[in-house]
Design a protein that fits this description.
Alpha-D-Glucose-1,6-Bisphosphate, Chain A, domain 4; 30% helix; 49% strand
Length: 152
C-alpha cells in the first residue's frame, strides 16, 4: 500500500510553567474535555493510546499512538498506526516567557480514499490539520487558565 505522506510542525507558546503543559499533554484521556476535534481517547496501556479525531471536514481518523520515548517534561515521541501511520514528536521548552510546545508529525494516510484524493486534496488536509491544532492550543490555554501567546 502506498501512503500519501505529510509533515506538519505545530508550535504553541503558553504563558505557564512547563510541568503544567506536560501534565495536560500527557493526560491524553482528558483531551476531549479541552481539545475541540478530539472525539475520543482510550488509554490502552502505559505506552499505547487510541484516539479518534474529527474536524470541520466530513471525515474521522482513528489511530493508535505507541509511546517509544518519554522524558518528562520535555520529550514525548511515538509511532502512529491505523488510519494514520508514521511518527510524532512532542518537545517542550521553558523560557522566561512561558512554555513552547512543538509537535512534529510525519505521517501518511492509510485509507484508500484519502490516498486517492491526496494529490488534489493535500491543501484541504493540511488546512484541516492546522484547524485541529489551533483548537488544541486555544483549548489547552483555556484548560490551564493561561494565555496562548503564539501558535503556528
Amino acid at each position: 500500500m502506498r501512503l500519501t505522506q505529510y509533515r506538519f510542525l505545530t508550535t504553541w507558546l503558553l504563558d505557564t510553567e512547563i510541568d503544567r503543559v506536560w501534565d495536560a499533554i500527557y493526560d491524553a484521556r482528558r483531551w476531549p474535555e479541552w481539545w475541540r476535534g478530539v472525539e475520543r481517547v482510550v488509554v490502552i496501556g502505559d505506552d499505547l493510546w487510541r484516539s479518534t479525531w474529527k474536524s470541520l471536514l466530513p471525515y474521522r481518523l482513528t489511530f493508535d499512538f505507541e509511546i517509544e520515548r518519554r522524558e518528562p517534561p520535555h520529550v514525548l515521541m511515538g509511532r502512529a498506526d491505523g488510519e494514520l501511520a508514521g511518527t510524532g514528536q512532542w518537545r517542550l521548552y521553558e523560557s522566561p516567557e512561558g512554555t513552547a510546545s512543538t509537535w512534529d508529525w510525519r505521517v501518511g494516510t492509510t485509507g484508500a480514499w484519502m490516498n486517492a484524493l491526496g494529490p488534489l486534496a493535500r491543501p484541504a488536509f493540511a488546512w484541516n490539520h492546522g484547524w485541529v491544532m489551533r483548537q488544541g492550543g486555544k483549548g489547552l490555554a483555556r484548560h490551564l487558565g493561561c494565555q496562548l501567546l503564539a501558535a503556528s
